[in-house]
Structure formats: C-alpha cells, structure tokens
Design a protein that fits this description.
single chain; mainly beta; Jelly Rolls; Immunoglobulin-like; six-stranded antiparallel beta sheet; Subtilisin
C-alpha cells in the first residue's frame, strides 16, 4: 500500500516515526517498509536582521542573504533587481531670452534622488555654430552664496568640447570623465564655456525648477566671469544633464521597509546560468527619537510702504542726481502697477541726460543667533538700455549681493524670497540700489518687504496663552523646539493636556512623550508659563441725559452694573 497519513496533530520538537512488527505468537509471512517520506512546512523564521541608521537607511550585501553557493566556476550575486545602471537625462528650457559671453559661468543646483548617478554629458544652448570648450565645476551644497567664491568650487570636475548647434538647439559635450553624485545630496553646478557664450532664460518664479525620478534642478544664476564679476539672478540655464544611475550590488532599505521583506536573490555564474531563491530581511529601527523641549520663536519684520513718506527707520540716499525714491503711490512709469502703495524710483520722470544712483535702506535688525533668515519683497523693474537694480544685505562687515535685475521683469511684478541665513549678524540690513548708469530708463519699485527669521530662546520656558473660556488645550508640538527622527513620529502626548486660569503665576512642568512607528520612545520636560492676555470685555450704558437737581449741585451716579445697564466679562475673573 502507498499513502499519506496526516500527522499534524502530533507535530513537536522531538517528532519520530517507528514501525513495529508483532507476530503475536503465530507463524506469519513478514512486513516491509520502503520509500519513507516525511513532508512538512515550517515558517522560515529568523532571516537577516538589518538595523536602520539615524538617517533611516541601511544597505545589505546580497552575499549576506545566502548560506552557501555550490558553483565551481565564478559567479555574481544580485538581489532585488539591483546591479545594473540605466541611462537618463533631464532638460530645462531651450528658449533663450538672455545670454552671456565666453568665459561666463552659469550656475544652478542639482539634487540627486534615491540612487547615485554619474553625469556623462552636458548639452548647452548657444547662438554660435563654432567649436567650444566646456568646464564643469561642482561643489557639495548650494551654489547660492558661492557665486564669487572660487575656493568653494576647487578644481574642474570634468571637461569636454563640442560644436555649437545654433540658437535654442542642444549643443552636446561628452565629458572626459563621469562626475559621480551621491544619492539624496544637493550639488552646485557651474558650467563655463570658452569660445562661445551660453544662452539662458530670465527666471520668473514659474520656470526655475525641473525634476524627474532621479534628480531635480533649481535654477539659477549667471556670473560674468569665472567666480568673479557681476551676478545676474534669477537666470535659468538652458541645457540637458545626461547621466547614468550608478550600478550597485547592494540592496538599500529605508523606513518604508520596516518589518519583514521578502527579497529575491539571484546567482549568475560566469556562463550566464541563473539560480534564484528568496530570503527574508527584517528591517529594524532601534534608534529612539531625539526631542528637545523649549520654544523656538519665529519673528517677522514687515513694511508695506503704505505711507506717503519714507517709513520710520528706513532711509533713502541720492548718491548721484537729484531725484529720490517716491512713496504714496503704486504707479510704475512703465509696465504693470503695484496694487497698493510702494517705494518707487521713477527714472523716466528724472529726465533725459540725468545720471541717477539712488539707494533705499532698511532699518538695522539684530539677527544674532538667527536661523532660517529669508528676505522677501515684491519687485518691479523696467529698463531701457543698461540700467541695473541690485539687492544687498549687510553681513556685519560688508554688503553682500543677493539679487540683481538687469532686464525687464516678466511678469512685471514678481515676489521674491531669498535665503540670507549665511549673512545673519547683529547689524543686519537690506538695501536696494537703482543705477541708470547714465542712461534714461524707466525705473524700479519695492513693496511688501518681509524679513522672517527664527531665534531659539534660552532655556526651555514656553508661554501658553489662555483662550476666551479660560482654558487651553496643550498642543504637544508647541512645547518642542526640535525633533530628530528619520522614520517619523507616530504618537505624541503630554502628561498635562489642559491648563486654566488657576495655573497662572506658577511654572508648570509638562512632560512630552513621543514614539516612532517601531515603538522607540523619548521624552523631555518643558517649563510652561500660563498667561492671560485677553482684556475684560465691558459693555457701557447707553448715552443718557440726567437732572442734577436744583443748582445742578447733586447727582448720584447709579450702579449701572447692578441695574444691568453695564456689563463686564473676563475669562479668568468672575465677577470682574
């Protein structure tokens, strides 16, 4: 007989099978057993434990997923489909509205996606059909603030040569060496051509960012020399970055892979024969969140130029000419007008033959220890020749240019927000300079100035304001000045969820608890001062005419609160 017997009920750690023959005292023939087979299924369990780092990332060598390989010849191991690079490209615009000369540098930022890439070719836009040389400079970080800092760029990363294809057509250059860029990293690019000038497009806020699955580009600036000369921004480099994703034999895991992951492992021998198996990778996060209790205050300085004169604390300086900045109107001499009053210099009204150089300067701001400093404003600029309009900030020792306008703005009025964190100091200022360079231009305007910055307070005291009902529900995030957790916070709570009027005047210690998706926990304690900043609300009696009696000598003022003609309410005092 042949057959299977279900033994699941008897499965245990010491499972055995035995066969017993008993003739029970009589004479019989015999018994036999052949082709014994015990089949069962069991969870693989175990697997390879992989621990994420503080950035929420981990890499595995596919060889670590195998317990052994029986192959006499050579072989390679890959996992999860990795191991081969692919080609790609990302283009910006080929609609040049402006351009520079031979030797100029055009700069922009490249942020690499989840995989390493290597840049192999560059396309540029040039009006020329002549031969040219190209140098590519690369720095880790952003080009912003390094436009005229040659030390930050170092030596040429790669070079090449090509022949111009003509206006608004890609002119290709194959680099003499690939430029390898690491995943999840931002790099500044400076493209310099010799023999031809590069075409670029004036930035308008809507045409300065390009991306695909592998990288993104944020553009950009033109500099009239190799890290020296005038800086023109925003300028959108016209071109294409050709690249390859870098081949890797590794296997990467992130916070998105927490838990068990079934990975296909492929072994390919030198003759191309393939075998596969599956391995379990347990992705584990054991790193607890890092949190800091305390207040991180964000401040904002605003000027909307709605008055008819220069605002208090601001100053104008007529360095050349007689015309000055004008206030009390939003009318530009050419192009679109501001919708509200603005600070405007009207070069057209100054008249032909007049040379004008005028400066508008902000008050001094103490930005000691400030972070996330952004200078924002609305700007208009219409030129007629060679006029320029520059924006600078004072870094405590010298003025640093953060923007330059040298061509008509399209749209005519644009909103800027420029990171000036690198220049924060105790005597920070912003100034706008209009220079008609002896020509007769239209003019420039500024409106809606906004300086925002953050300064962490000393200690960890947080002020909580009570609401109209005399209570406030604590937002746990409002008690934290910093959170470091690559995989994100899944739960946050406080041990004191609400405060009320009875808490005024005492410092309350409130503990914040957080947990990430893996159950790692952290806590910190904040000092909380509860304050009431809401004034009482009073209702006065209606206007009245009263008779003070004979000789107008005597009149007793009624108790209007008792009569109900007057009321007073407060969130923390009852009765008032």
């Amino acid at each position: 007989n042949t057959g299977d017997l279900d033994m699941m009920t008897y499965a245990n750690a010491d499972f055995q099978v035995r066969f017993t023959y008993d003739d029970e005292g009589s004479w019989a023939y015999a018994a036999g057993v052949d082709n014994f087979l015990l089949s069962y299924e069991i969870s693989a369990g175990g697997g390879l434990d992989v621990f994420l780092d503080a950035n929420g990332m981990a890499s595995v060598d596919p060889n670590d997923l195998l317990t052994g390989v029986n192959e006499a010849c050579g072989y390679t191991v890959t996992a999860g489909g990795v191991g081969g690079g692919t080609s790609g490209s990302l283009s910006t615009l080929f609609i040049g509205t402006n351009g520079g000369s031979s030797g100029w540098a055009v700069m922009y930022d490249v942020t690499v996606g989840p995989a390493d890439i290597q840049v192999t070719e560059i396309d540029i836009n040039t009006t020329s059909t002549a031969a040219f040389d190209l140098d590519l400079y690369v720095l880790t970080g952003t080009y912003v603030g390094n436009e005229t800092n040659p030390a930050a760029w170092g030596a040429v990363a790669a070079s090449g040569s090509g022949t111009g294809a003509g206006t608004d057509l890609p002119s290709n250059v194959v680099l003499d060496a690939p430029v390898v860029l690491s995943a999840n990293t931002t790099y500044g690019f400076a493209v310099v051509t010799t023999g031809v000038g590069q075409r670029y497009t004036n930035g308008d806020g809507t045409n300065q960012n390009f991306s695909n699955a592998d990288l993104s580009m944020s553009l950009g600036t033109a500099v009239s020399g190799l890290f020296t000369g005038s800086v023109f921004t925003p300028r959108v480099w016209n071109g294409t970055v050709h690249y390859e994703t870098v081949a890797s034999s590794g296997l990467d895991f992130t916070c998105a892979d927490l838990g068990e992951n079934l990975v296909e492992v492929t072994v390919t021998d030198d003759s191309g024969n393939v075998s596969t198996c599956f391995a379990t990778v347990n992705v584990i996060d054991l790193i607890a969140p890092v949190i800091t209790c305390g207040a991180s205050d964000t401040f904002m300085e605003i000027e909307d130029f709605e008055g008819a004169t220069v605002p208090t604390g601001w100053a104008t300086d007529v360095q050349v000419g007689t015309a000055d900045w004008e206030f009390g109107s939003g009318d530009m001499p050419n192009g679109d007008d501001f919708t509200t009053n603005a600070a405007i210099f009207n070069d057209d009204a100054a008249g032909i033959g007049e040379t004008n150089l005028v400066v508008l300067t902000s008050p001094v701001y103490d930005l000691t220890g400030a972070t996330d400093v952004f200078v924002g404003y609305d700007v208009a600029f219409q030129e007629s020749g060679d006029q320029i309009f520059t924006v600078e900030v004072y870094d405590g020792a010298a003025w640093q240019q953060i923007a330059l306008y040298d061509a008509d703005l399209v749209p005519n009025i644009q909103t800027e927000s420029i990171d000036a964190t690198a220049y924060a100091n105790s005597a920070f200022q912003v100034r706008w300079t209009y220079d008609d360079l002896g020509g007769w231009g239209w003019g420039a305007g500024v409106d809606n100035f906004n300086l925002s910055y953050a300064i962490s307070t000393s200690g960890n005291v947080v002020e909580i304001e009570l609401g109209p009902d005399g209570t406030t529900t604590i937002d746990p995030y409002s008690l934290l000045s910093n959170i470091e957790e690559a995989c994100g916070i899944s739960t946050i709570a406080v041990d004191v969820p609400t405060v009320d009027c009875s808490d005024i005047g005492a410092t309350i210690m409130i503990t914040v608890f957080v947990s990430d998706a893996s159950g790692n926990i952290a806590s910190c304690t904040a000092e909380v001062n509860v304050v009431d900043k809401l004034a009482p609300v009073i209702t006065c009696p209606a206007d009245q005419t009263v008779d003070p009696g004979a000789g107008n000598l005597f009149y007793i003022l009624p108790d209007y609160f008792a009569t109900g003609e007057a009321t007073a309410e407060d969130n923390c005092t009852d009765p008032v």
